[in-house]
Amino acid sequence: MFLNDNLKIFSGSSNTALASAVCKYLGIVLGGANIDRFPDGEKVIKLEDDVRGRDCFVLQSTCKPVDEHLMELLIYLDCLRRASAKRITAVIPYFGYARQDRKDEGRVPITAKLVANIITTAGADRVLAIDLHAHQLQGFFDIPVDHLSSELVLCSYFRDKKISNLAVVSPDVGNIKTAAKYAAHLGGDLAIVHKKRISGSTVQANEIIGDVQGKNVLMCDDIIATAGTVCSAAGLLKERGAQKIYIGAAHGVFAGQALERLEQAPIDEVVVTDTIPPNEEAKKLGNIKVLSVAEMLGEAIKRIHRNESVSSMFNNI
């Protein structure tokens, strides 16, 4: 694949395996940089490649530890800007702080907007992200945002499985549009779980709108954080006569008791992508499968570099 040497891709420390896989797809070498710390713990980054006048991409998921990875991304962006890169794109496969996107009560921040502001101030000219928690987050940035969807990867996987008698289930009311897209792509019926949030980590599934009796179920979500929503929904689906239960999600955060819940829940397979690198405990669970978004990201980076359409990638899911 021909790409001129004006393209440079660098990686933060959060997801080096994904960045390397992206470079392998593009047939280029990952940009050199030394990430170190001062004795007091402050990070320092020094580029080992010349970036003057070049189109630069820095890949960094702002996953756990969120604050450290976010600060590293900001330092990287400032480093590239001061080294006279022509254009700097922040490639953020998983965008942390996305859930704090509005004031739902008094005296709370809108952290998603704050993070968008500081990424721009640090030197990003554009952002490339995957499955933001809410689509309106694109408008929080005052720079161009290319928003990719893991549907491209997940739909391909589940289509190849050829699941018979399929029902696509939204685990909550807020995810209906995504579930409807999967149902249209895969040809299944649509159902919705009505849930009640008891606390930040505890969810109770109350009712199902739609028929799942005797069906194989695919539940679609953007994030599996504590897994309270999908595990509670899976229990209710089993009670209502569902057969096999599959979960598809872009981001496997797996916080708190998530892995324990997923192991105990009546779920046949949990499929996530490598926007967040899976930890060792997740790898040990037999029902978790991780798909790579490297080719999708690589194709998007190639098209951005060549000033070609990115949205057309999703025309034939």
Task: Kindly summarize this structure in a few lines.
This protein is an alpha/beta fold and 317 residues long.
Structure commentary:
The chain has 317 residues and is an alpha/beta fold. It folds into two domains: 7-149 and 294-314, Rossmann fold, CATH 3.40.50; 151-291, Rossmann fold. It contains nine helices and 14 strands. Helix 1 crosses helix 9.
Largest sheet: 7 strands, mixed
- Radius of gyration (CA) equals 20 Å
Total domains, how many?
A: 2
Q: Going across the biggest sheet, name each strand in turn.
A: 10-9-8-11-12-13-14
Could you tell me the CATH topology label of the largest domain.
Rossmann fold
Number of strands: 14
CATH architecture of the largest domain: 3-Layer(aba) Sandwich
Order of helices and strands: EHEEEHEHEEHEHEEEHEHEHEH
> Overall pLDDT, averaged?
94
Q: Tally the helices.
A: 9
Shape: globular
First-last Cα distance: 23 Å
Structural class assignment = alpha/beta
Are there runs of 5+ residues with pLDDT below 50, and where?
Answer: none
Give the DSSP E fraction (strand runs of 2 or more residues): 25-35%
Specify the CATH class of the largest domain. Answer: Alpha Beta
Q: What proportion of the residues is helical, as a percent range?
A: 25-40%
Supply the key terms:
317 residues, alpha/beta, Rossmann fold, 2 domains, 7-stranded mixed β-sheet, 5-stranded parallel β-sheet, 9 helices, 14 strands, 31% helix, globular
